[in-house]
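Study both lines:
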Amino acid sequence: MLQDEENFDVDAQFEAGLSHAGTLWSRLGVEPDFSGKHVLEVGSGLGFLTAAIALAGAESVLGVDIWAPRVEYGARKIAERFPHLNNVRFDSTPTDKMEGEDRFDVIVSQNTFEHIGDIDGVLASFRRLLKPGGVVYLGFSPLYHSPFGDHGELRAPIRLPWLHLLAGRRRVIASFNRANRESVTTLQACGYNALKPADFLWAFARSGLEVRRLRINRTEGALKQAAMRVLSVLSHVPGLAPYLTLGIYATLRKPQRPGLVDERPAASRSIEPPLSKAA
């Protein structure tokens, strides 16, 4: 796969991500309190959210990304940009390969779950790695079947909603191979799990983690918010949900005692309290 530096200005992307780190909390509807917490960020990418969490007072932050060049960049960038931070580490070990249990107070993952193939396995590792009462903050978008779910991979001259679905998986894969000098044959190998909203919600229900808050199609700006409200209403029409659900934002919690889990699928509950401080 091509290095990030060949595709975009990584330093500018880091700074932009750092300045907009609060976007995830806004979409989740919660402002986490990281003070004194041991935090794991899954899918840390360039490391800007890792840095923001460390700057927010976390006791320690471990950023995990399976792409080693991003791990190396994140460690180097934070050492240069914030030399006073000594509570940040990066690793490329997948969570299901990480040792131990009850290690973290908080797990954060942003724009990663739409790429993960084994959602059940990752959620199981989250439950193992979290301390009892620990919290997971998840936010990911766009889902593959949503209007621009290919993340621009089709590279069409004009970006049109759902064009990647009309073009078909073979064309998306071919475009990926040309751009990245690869020869993969599946959409999953391109980094898209192509799961639908219900797949994620049932995975949450199976995970043994409590779904404390669930929000769909959250964004910023009056016009975008209005558009998202329209999509959310239309998504209730049978069969349309996969195509009109762009993003999922969920707060999950490991029970204090084993077995105390709400086993109903998240889709059957309406959980959306106002913005609040949370541990």
Residues 260-279 have pLDDT under 50 and may be disordered. Residues 4-149+192-278 form a domain with the Rossmann fold fold (CATH 3.40.50.150). The first helix runs from residue 10 to 19. DSSP finds ten helices and nine strands in the chain.
